[in-house]
Amino acid sequence: MVQKRGRGRIMRLKEKYPGVFFDGKDYYTRNADSGRSVYGERTVTVNGKEYRYWDPARSKLSAGIHRGLTKFPIRKNSKVLYLGAASGTTASHISEITENEVYAIEFAERPFRSLIKVSEKRGNLMPVLANARLPVQYRHIVPEVDTIYQDIAQRDQVGIFLKNMSFFNAKIGVLMLKARSVNVSEKPKKVFQRVADELSEYTKIEQAINLKPYEKDHMAFIVKA
Ligand SMILES: C[S@@+](CC[C@H](N)C(=O)[O-])C[C@H]1O[C@@H](n2cnc3c(N)ncnc32)[C@H](O)[C@@H]1O
Fold it and tell me: Tens digit of pLDDT for each residue in 178-212?
């Protein structure tokens, strides 16, 4: 795909993973709501199609890609359960990568209102107001899924993740771990090791990626059930 940019520069987009496009420096997803951005990100038009810049400083999954993610966890037909969707920054990109449903769980009402707006033009993004600690609250809405993506800064984030993985029979999991939320006084390195040991008891860790410099004290764990 080729597009002429300002000052005569030619912009090319290559599909790095299905639904994820790369211009040699930055990543993009195809905008499902043409003419509008979700969190102030810029858009580009290439061959008549609009793409949204996927900001690694705003989205941990984009940060993971920039930091060397090789096992991309979302496929074109992945059914996804997203835990801790907030106002939909990352969930909007995920819903533009998969053509299948993305169930976005958020328990705080304020970001949830923005999430609803973002989902209005994205037919496969389903916002669910619920507590991720209690999958029984949303099991009547959410079916079995392929991938669970979790970004919840809570002390019990690993327990929440494993509970949902098992509850929804997910095959792939992405845990965006914030070490300081698990234990504010312990060295992040120690927390990462302890969490890796715990995850290994129930899953196979495919990749663990430190998200610095985009996110301090965060590790992205990509696991297989
Ligand atoms: C770091 S923010 C998520 C940012 C978002 N994943 C993104 O990249 O666009 C964490 C979110 O998790 C939500 N959260 C925390 N604990 C939760 C729980 N038990 N159930 C549901 N949502 C929760 C918070 O309200 C907050 O909006």
Answer: 999 999 999 999 999 999 999 999 999 999 999 99
CB atoms within 10 A of CB 198: 14
Query: Beta strand pairing status for 147-150 and 80-83?
Result: parallel
Q: How far is the CA of 65 from the centre of ligand 1 (A)?
A: 21
Q: Ligand 1 within 6 A of 153 CB?
A: yes
Q: What pTM was estimated for this model as a whole?
A: 0.95
Give residue-wise pLDDT tens across range 11-70: 899 999 999 999 999 999 999 999 999 999 999 999 999 999 999 999 999 999 999 999
207 lines ligand 1 (CB under 6 A): no
Cα–Cα distance measured from residue 33 to residue 221, given in angstroms and rounded to the nearest whole number = 30
* CA of residue 112 to ligand 1 center, whole Å: 10
Summarize pLDDT for 82-136 with one digit per residue, the tens: 999 999 999 999 999 999 999 999 999 999 999 999 999 999 999 999 999 999 9
Q: 125 in helix, strand or coil?
A: strand
2-53 and 60-224: same fold? no
Q: Which CATH superfamily groups domain 2-53?
A: Phosphorylase Kinase; domain 1 (3.30.200.20)
Tell the CATH topology of 60-224: Rossmann fold (3.40.50)
Contacts of 133 (CB under 8 A, 6+ apart): 156, 160, 163
Segments making up each domain of the chain, as ranges: 2-53, 60-224
Ligand 1 mutation target, pool 61, 93, 151, 162, most atoms within 8 A of CB? 151
Ligand 1 centre distance from Cα of residue 4 (Å): 39
